[in-house]
From TrEMBL:
Family per record: Belongs to the tryptophan dimethylallyltransferase family.
PANTHER family recorded: INDOLE PRENYLTRANSFERASE TDIB-RELATED, PRENYLTRANSFERASE ASQH1-RELATED
Name of the molecule in the record: 4-O-dimethylallyl-L-tyrosine synthase
Key word Metal-binding present: no
NCBIfam families for the chain: arom_pren_DMATS
Keyword terms: Transferase
Entries under InterPro entries matching the protein: ABBA, ABBA_NscD-like
GO biological process, alphabetically ordered: alkaloid metabolic process
KW Transferase (keyword) present: yes
Organism: Mycena sanguinolenta
Single GO term (MF): transferase activity, transferring alkyl or aryl (other than methyl) groups
Amino acid sequence: MPSHVVDHAALWADGKYFAQVPSFGKITPPPETLSVREIVFSVTKQLLGDSYTLNEDFVIEKPTDSEVYDILTYALPILSEQSKFFWDRAARTLGSMLATAKYPIHAQTSHLVFWWARLGGINGPTIKGTSKEQLSEFTRDGSCVEFSWVIPSDTDPTAPANRKIRFGIDPFHPDLRTRLSGSIVTDYLWSEAGGMGIVSQKGGKDWRDKIEKWLFPNLEHPEQVVPGCTYFVGFDLEPSGNITLKHYYMPPAPDPNVENAFKSATNRLTSDLSPFRAIVGDLHPSLTKPLDVLIDFLANEGKDSGLLFAMVACDLKPLKDNRLKLYMWTPRHTLKQIIHNMTLGGKLKGPKYDADIADLTKLFKNLFPYAANDEDKELYSQHIIDDVPEAYQEEQPGRHDAGLLYYFELFVDEPNPYPKVYFLMDFFGRNDLTTAQSVEGFLREVGKPGESGWFPGDIARACPHRDLAARTGTQTGFSFGIKPKGWDVTGYYSPEVFRAAEEAEERLKKLNLKN
């Protein structure tokens, strides 16, 4: 598999994909007593300065559920057809999610303007790739963005800032159908010019720099893209309007013929986490203990778990808030096995874990009622899977194959790792509507308020390109994570950028044939 080098600086300077704006300091949120339109224009002008002329004379003809998105759709200039494509098909989902979460209007504006100025260009071409190297592992249809929201278990889903919005992008070049260097992308977005005064620079990039140097010690230049490596960039959107970045590496599978420059300290699909001992001590000495707990589990109680390393990630946060995340995949997925992995074979125990596992079991039984009374029942796909890209069908297991994903969080000064399990519902679900109804049933069972149908309705508004009952693919996953205090659940969503475009084209062809 050949490597490639991209001139990233030239890409950032290309006004077709990245808005050319001066760097600014922190914006001053206008008074909330102003109209939505007045707030949107105030914040947008603060972010863009005199770099672009906004259209201020328009009437919104077909409003969506996001007034901020609608105003910006008319006000902002079109950078290119590529930019417009991802604004229409991906930023539309983001706008809806921000509106549903009831972020302040100034924050909704900041986040959407940042997408327009900085993120459309890293979503790749508008035409779906045909090889594994040209497709993202993030989503079923191979598109590059996955949105998510962390859903509190006790707050009203109509309250202000009622959930945390995040998303991840597998960055691709908008013209070349090649991956971009993940570290160069985060360097740009973290910089003053790339961050536009919105991206948080607290904490620095030390962990990410150390991880990359450890993982690829022979890399000649950070602009090189390691063959077979997948890079994700994560974005945590704050109600303040600020953004915190996260960085992910999914290293290549083992290759005896790999060039020396691209040899990695570890590879995906290994059960051996011992190479991480060399890096965790450098990140922070206290991370050694939870790593050793995890390694001991895999060697003993978890030796038959089937868990294989998949990905490593960290936040770009201050040390006290940062975490090292080790992702692992397994083809085994009974309730008994899930509980075994989430408690590290009984290593994690006590009243807190008992309560957390009881709620995890409730989620499992709501998602998979056919396995509710049999803890040894293997999960299976409840629908016909006929859309896996050919590039993946004969490849090694991963995102497009049956299995569960876990991660284990290592926090500074915490003696144990904290686990999270991801149920890949685009594989295991019956359809997106059934999954959403099951999640709402779980949230109701643990005491979350909300009118009947609120959760499927939120998703349908965010992803209106089709009926949720038609199939799976929009609700990519749902996770349950045990935290130092309590637990959290997160829903993950794909706007199905490529498949939605393909289906729209098919509908148009059928309509033309009838006419």
